[in-house]
Please model this.
Amino acid sequence: MLTTSQSLILIAILAAVTFLTRAIPFLLFPDKNRMPSFVRYLGQALPYSIMAMLVVYCYKNVSLTASPFGIPEFICALFILILHRRRHNLILSIAGGTILYMLLVQMVF
Amino acid sequence: MKKEHYRQAFYLTLPVMAGYLFLGCAFGILFQEQGYGPLWAALMSFAVYAGSLQFAAVGLFAAPFSPLSALLLALTVNARHVFYGLSMLDKYEGRGLTKWYCVFGLSDETYSLLCTGRTPEGADPARFRFLVTLLDQSYWIIGSAAGALIGRYLPFSSEGIDFVMTALFLVIAIEQWEKAEDHLPAVGGFILSLICLFFFGPDSFLIPSMAAILLFQYLLYRRDCRQKSSPYRPADYMDAAGQAEKKEGDHTC
Model:
């Protein structure tokens, strides 16, 4: 274990860098009315790409070559897709998908 | 802000609550194994507040003291957050400290809840976002302190609970898909991320994906400029009642 001050320094570095990565765009473009138009475009179109990237990020450690071949992950994604298209209930879809996944990984796979 | 809006904010953050309490717990357990108690776990979650980085950084507290590795790790793991800010610029307008707190608290999950820019009708958007951000971080802090304190004695197996985050992102992506007039940004983001995952592997595909997505969005932007008919009109940014927010969707090229 590190000393108390070493630990505090590490936490301070992690905190500062994290805040910086989140704040950079706001520091670079402080004035909403003087943003380049491409940046304004990003504000509207980028969320769609980011959510798609985050979904891929969640599946990044799923192995298609080793058992269980990502089967529980893909079954649950399909389940959530169908459930959400039918009922459009955020909590129901998320809870349903998660509980199904827990049952699958704990009892089936 | 009426009572009803507080309730709506709470309701909106429920999935994050489930995820953060358990993931926070998992972080608390890991951190505690390095000899750091609940107060340390809470401090880390209070000051850093970045899930995947906190997990990745646990090892730094065991190894010899290395501030440079902490810096590099934080930069690479959190680079994706630059993207979140970039797409929130027009939504987080100047409101002093609360705005900067919202910027500080722009985690993956908070971002996914707020990225549509929609807030309940009648609610003050800035205060609503502040509340959602604050609630989310509270769950995370409580979860990590609880994990460091009692995590080992959970009465049931929580294996697989982390899927709650995947489920949240999937549902948000489905909702976006239904609302979007132009599916290219979503499809492009998905395919480019998959390609980068294939070539760069799970640990380092995010940064190339982001670069590829930026380039792709630039091409889309040029296309829209030529067509002069961007699908991103203000009508895409309706609040719950279907009234367009006061937001300019056009971008002059």
About this structure: Residues 3-177 of chain B form one domain. Chain B has two domains: 3-177, 180-230. The two ends of chain B are 38 Å apart (CA to CA).
